[in-house]
Amino acid sequence: MSCMLAVDCGLTVCKAVIFSLDGRVIGAGTSKPPVLFPQPGWAERDPENLWQHACRAIKEALADSQLQAEDIACVCVTGQGNGIYGLDAKCRPVRNCILSTDTRALGTVETLKTEGTFEKAHFLTGNQIWAASPPVLMRWIKDHEPEVYARTRHICFVKDYIKYRLTGELNSDHTDVTGGALADTRQIAYRPEILAAYGISEIESTLPPLLNAWDIGGRITRTAAAAAGLAEGTPVAVGGMDLHMTALGCGCLAADQLSIIIGTWAINSLILQEPVFDPAVLFTTTYCIPHRWLLVDGSASSAANLDWFVEQFCAEEKQQAATLGISTFDVINAALADTDPTSSEILFHPFIYGSNVQPTARAGFYGLAGWHRRSDLLRAILEGVCFSHLSHVENLRARRAEREAFLAGGGKRSRIWVQMFCDVLATPITIPAADELGALGCAITAAVAAGHYPDHPTAVARMCAVADKIQPNAEANRVYLQKYRLYKMLRDAMRPAWDAMYHTFQSVKVESV
């Protein structure tokens, strides 16, 4: 039996999913590597610990499938983009990896902008300058951890590190390096001018060799086979950034299709036939299929805000869910089922983990009164996340309107949230049948890489299915747009206050040292 193994190393969990060649899940495993917060605003992982969790997830998936290791025809790895993994001359980590939710480099962003880096680099990369972008982080490391900078001989992304541990081969693909501002997105090649603009020309030799996502990037080594329970010699596809794999898992292949991911990040990606650079959006990147690009806008302002609130303030709902044997989010959905757009007078900026509004932006509830309940706050969070996505989609629409939209991420399991998205965006939304869409995109990539399908359209036709198509409600959209105008008014009013808060608290920290 020929099956594809997908390994998806996200910001919250590491998943391993085994798929048949018709897209069915045969087995799955998950493991949750801890995120380390050594200082406020920092977010890291121990790479060795991550590898152990990846192996644990793979073994669990194999056990769940009741397959033999030899039944895996090809492996493919994906994971969050950006952040940084630095390795020494022997490919050992030089420090903990830095995740894409990390904001330690906010000051570096300000410095780079005053140095004119954006103007120098954007016309080549199509990327914004933001705190967790790899060249920004390397500049931060150069300025603050020079001994680490000096020992760094290789830099890569999460999927590349796991792939290296599986195969002993260190390489990357076009999606990660163009989405990570390390390469010329039009020519799909490294350019020394990019690193020079960031003041890090010394690291040119550390950049990984470039392959296509659908190429074979190596084969399982004997050591990795023993650690992960796989068969030595099994081919491993190069793979791509998770947002690309998720869009592919949705079945997105054609120009003007929009992929929306409700995840840790609010990711909104529009497929293009040719690259379009726009300083108003986060980045333009090559797509994980031939001759396509993605125009991407997003920020860490999506479902992670809800996860944080539930973890901190929803003990009652968690207890009720445990008693009933259901998910906490099922309890929340049931509590909100009878609400509508007029039910909440509270607005929420979903910036718990940062925002594209400005580097100093922070989350906040507005309009709280004594009669409000926790359910009112929950509804405000759901709406705030939708409004954040809308702000990104508006940036994409300024360049090109979507022809159709696909919704992915854990939030797609909530019918009330899906309808909310549909009404806020005023566009029909397709809900893919698969749950693990990033993993499915990986499996599609693996199937093409291993030669089981001749191309991506054939693989998508065989492996992707649609669960539902949702239509927007015009009256709900009218109410939401009124609330969205207030959301933006408050956002703009808070800009100077956010800056003042950041600089005030930074000065307080300096004075206390």
If you had to describe this structure to a student in words, what would you say it looks like?
The chain is of the alpha/beta class. It is built from 18 helices and 21 strands. The model has no long low-confidence stretch (mean pLDDT 94).
Question: How many DSSP E strands?
Answer: 21
Radius of gyration: 22 Å
What is the spatial order of strands in the main beta sheet?
15-16-14-13-19-20-21
Average per-residue pLDDT, rounded, comes to 94
Task: Supply the key terms.
alpha/beta, 6-stranded mixed beta sheet, 21 strands, 42% helix, 18% strand
Give a brief description.
This protein is an alpha/beta fold. It is 42% helix and 18% strand.
Write the layout of secondary structure elements.
Layout: E1 3-9, E2 14-19, E3 25-31, E4 44-45, H1 47-65, E5 72-79, E6 85-87, E7 97-98, H2 106-114, H3 117-125, H4 134-144, H5 146-151, E8 154-156, H6 158-167, E9 172-173, H7 174-179, H8 192-198, E10 210-211, E11 216-219, H9 222-228, E12 235-237, H10 242-250, E13 257-262, E14 266-272, E15 283-286, E16 293-299, H11 304-313, H12 315-324, H13 328-336, E17 347-349, E18 364-366, H14 374-397, E19 404-408, H15 415-425, E20 429-432, H16 437-449, H17 456-463, E21 466-470, H18 474-512
Parallel strand pairs: 1-5, 5-12, 9-10, 13-19, 19-20
Antiparallel strand pairs: 1-2, 2-3, 4-7, 6-8, 11-12, 13-14, 14-16, 15-16, 17-18, 20-21
